[in-house]
Every structure is written in C-alpha cells, then in structure tokens.
Specification:
The chain has 121 residues and is an all-beta fold. The chain is built from no helices and eleven strands.
Length: 121
C-alpha cells in the first residue's frame, strides 16, 4: 500500500501565492527523487520542479525564480511554494516520487491524484 496525497491547490489571483504539499505513505524504504509535474488541458505533462534526497533541485525555466521546491525527509513530504502566480500556471499539479518500497526491489515512480491550481486574471 503506497500513496501520494497532494494538498494545497485552489483558486488564486494572478500575483498571488499557493503552497502545495505532497505526503508519501505506505511501505517506504527510501524515497529518492521527488517532484511536481503539471498538465494543462490540451498540453503534455511537464516537469515543474524536482528535488533529490540530498536537496539538489531542478526547475522548469518557466517557473525559475517564482517557485521553490523543498522536502522534509522525516515527514516524507515534498512542498512546492508558488509565488507570483500567472494564469499560464493554471493546471493540474501532480506529485511524483521515485520510491523504493523494499531494499530488494528497484525503485519505481509513484504518482498522486493531482490537485487543481487555477490562477485568475
């Protein structure tokens, strides 16, 4: 039983901020890379930000300087602080974790159900 649950999405005005959270639960041996992806209607899912277990980060060019990804390994939780939001940030945001459930199996990618972020003009 493994699960990723996102929270924090909602409706916000342009220029505003939201903080997304994603908590991993279930059988956890180790969580490696964690990240946030988003998908807008009619567009492909894209990587927004990712963070390694050690804290190394990657961001899409479109969100650099505005979004910050962080994680709390003790809580098995990854966050995405989104500032200066723009209407083009509107999408369903999905949490992803590269996750090993046992020491004897290779890690797999797990996905949350997604949380809607809508940025109004």
């Amino acid at each position: 039983q493994v699960q990723l649950v996102e929270s924090g999405g909602g409706l916000v005005q342009a220029g505003g901020s939201l903080r997304l959270s994603c908590e991993a639960s279930g059988s956890i041996f180790s969580i490696n890379r964690m990240g946030w992806y988003r998908q807008a209607p009619g567009k492909q899912r894209e990587l927004v930000a990712a963070i390694s277990r050690g804290g190394s980060t990657n961001y899409a060019d479109s969100v650099k300087g505005r979004f910050t990804i962080s994680r709390d390994n003790a809580k098995n939780t990854v966050y995405l602080q989104m500032n200066s939001l723009k209407p083009e940030d509107t999408a369903v945001y999905y949490c992803n974790a590269n996750w090993a459930t046992t020491p004897w199996r290779s890690p797999n990618d797990y996905w949350g159900q997604g949380t809607q972020v809508t940025v109004s003009l």
